[in-house]
Amino acid sequence: MRIEIDVPATTSNLGPGFDALGMALQLSSTFVCETQDSVTAPLPGVDRTLRIDVEGYGADELPRDASHLVVATIAARLAAHGRALPNLRLLQTNQIPLGSGLGSSSTAIVGGLAIAQALLGMPLDREALLRDACRFEGHPDNAAPCVLGGLVTATYDGEVVHTVPLPIAPGLGCVICTPDLQLSTIAMRAVLPDEVPFADAVFNGTHACLLIAALATGRLALLAEATQDRLHQRFRAAHVPGFEAVVAASQAAGALTTVLSGAGPTVIALIDTTRCDAPAIARAMEVGFASVGLGSTSRIVQPRPTGVVVQITP
Question: Is the separation of the CB atoms in 181 and 158 below 8 Å?
Fold first, then answer.
């Protein structure tokens, strides 16, 4: 059996939508899994039961044994059904930088869960896939758009996931700029306060509502105000050198608003593609990081309407 999985990158939070709002992007990682009986040549390597190849981001650092996140996810899901991990070969091709705030761990988890469903002989079940992904991750902001695609608001109480797909305004585009820096989500959660002032909680609640309404109705001019946040961004941005310079440069170049993508360090500018010069915004963001001595990579991407895609060849 050959299983091919394509999983989109995601941006989450978008300012005040902490742990609840995410959007899939036209950037992806792919996972090709072959069980041994479908491979014409014997699998090379010391471990004859498992071969892992990684191309793109992480090729020099991701493990090649059963601790690999995709393989560990497959194994855990199969074990829940009383099945052992079969002899397999996995080729992972990453277009998404690791530790970047673009959902790389979500793609690995969703990819592994989708492979497990196929190995169990199940048709793609997005509801089960999303529920299981949330159990692994603990929150739905990356997992929901990863599985469903598009712009999604979601909640997860540890058992039940509630999702509402939102329309994406025509003309909404993104410029993402990732500095040469990795930040772990766990570390960036550790910098957040245990308590926030009541006024800040109210501020975020009202702005999250405004953000969802602005995105759903296409009132892009409201995004500068709607993406203001007091719960997480300033604490995390303190660990991203040049963040303020990148924000200022991108908005001077015509971005509607600029925020951290997820926990960072990627910075994402939301743009009106009908009215701005996206390449100029990308260059300005790179210059912002360069002003503090950081190299960076910018990309102009569109929201992706589709989530995980699965192809199976017997």
Answer: no
Tokens found for residue 98:
């690791």
Beta strands in the chain (DSSP E): 2-13, 17-35, 50-56, 88-94, 151-156, 161-166, 172-179, 257-260, 267-272, 296-301, 309-313
How far apart, in whole angstroms, are the C-alpha atoms of residue 44 and residue 126?
34
Sequence-distant (≥ 6) Cβ neighbours of residue 187 within 8 angstroms: none
**Contact status, residue 226 vs residue 207, Cβ threshold 8 Å:** yes
Phi then psi for residue 279, to 5 deg, are: -60, -35
Number of alpha helices (DSSP H) and beta strands (DSSP E) in the chain = 10, 11
Q: What is the pLDDT of residues 268-310, one digit of tens each?
A: 999 999 999 999 999 999 999 999 999 999 999 999 999 999 9
Domain ranges across the chain: 2-166+304-313, 172-301
Range 2-166+304-313 classified under CATH 3.40.50.150: no
3-state secondary structure of 118: helix
* Residue range 25-42, pLDDT digits in tens: 999 999 999 986 543 344
pLDDT of residue 39: 39
Structure tokens at 150: 């598009």
3-state SS, residue 108: helix
pLDDT of residue 182: 86
CATH topology of domain 172-301: Alpha-Beta Plaits (3.30.70)
- pTM equals 0.93
- Name the token pair of 300: 């102009």
